[in-house]
Structure formats: structure tokens, C-alpha cells
Amino acid sequence: MRRELLSVLASMLLVSALLAAWSSYVGSFLARLEAKLEHNPGLAAVLPVLMATTGAAAASFGSKLSTRVHLGTVSARRLVYDAAVQALALILAMSAYTTLVTTVFSGQLSLVRTVLESTVLTYLLAVFVALVSTFASVKLGLDPDDVVGPIVTTAADSAGIVITLLLSPG
Question: Looking at the chain, which terminus has fewer C-beta neighbours within 10 angstroms, N or C?
Fold first, then answer.
């Protein structure tokens, strides 16, 4: 029991340190693109929701994948199905929310297209990160339950910020 606790603690400390460094870098990128947030008033309201929903959906996918790896029931067909269903739900939720926010804050309906493109790209990247981090953690002898969630949510948050700001006008 003690050995397992130390193993989990060691893997989480390593992952947390790496993700903190990565998040700091992305934060500095965000600071450099602050003018885009000022130019697009609805973007500041949409960005946190985009990050949270995409990160949660991708973390859920990673969790399902991790469980299937533990159970030995991984199938490409089921992975594609799970990712597609979550992507559809994510796209519907983000389009409704973004339409509401842009109508209230800015009236710039072009933001809806930007957010939808960003949502799709961010989610695809996060699913890829979930796949890679799950199988890499197993290969490295780490429990994917301990590392995939934090890695995937950080990747989705980071990618969501970067992709959205790069796609947004201004």
C-alpha cells in the first residue's frame, strides 16, 4: 500500500511540474495576444467556457480510454464512436453558448465560427493527446488513471487558448 502511494505521488509530482511549466508558457503567450481579447469583447466571455467544456469532454474520453485499457477492451471502433458523440455534444453546446454570448456582448456572429473551428481543432488535439498519454503511460509503467486526466485537461486548455486566439480576427 505504501509503495503504491509513493508511486502515485511520484508520477503526479512529475506530471504536475511539467504541466505547470507548460501552463506558464501558454500564459505568457496569452499575455502577448491581449489586444485580440480587447478587439473581440465576446471572446473574453467565451474562452473560459471553451476551455472548461473541451477539457472536460477530452478528459472524459481519456478516462474511458484508461478504463478500457485496464479492462483490456480497447477497440478502435468504440474509441471513434465515443469521440464522435462527445464532439457532437460539445459542438452543439458551444454553438448555442457562443451565439448567446455574441448576441449579448458584441453582435459579431463571426465569433461563432471562430469558436466552433477552435472547439473542433482543440477537441481533436485533446483526443490525440489522450490516446498518446494513455498508451505512453502504460509503456512507462505509470497508471493512466493518475496521469491522463491532468495531461488532457491541460492540453485542451492550452490548445483552446492558443487556437482560439490565432483564429480570431484582430
Answer: N
Cα–Cα distance for residue pair 33/2, rounded to 1 Å: 46
Cell digits for 83? 469521440
- The pTM (predicted TM-score) of the whole model is 0.80
* DSSP codes joined into one string, 133-166: HHHHHHHTT--HHHHHHHHHHHHHHHHHHHHHHH
Cβ neighbours of residue 119 closer than 8 Å, sequence gap 6 or more: 50, 54, 90, 91, 94, 160
Count of domains for the chain? 1
Q: Give the domain extent around 47.
A: 2-167
What would the pLDDT profile of 62-77 be if each residue is shown by its tens digit? 988 988 998 889 898 9
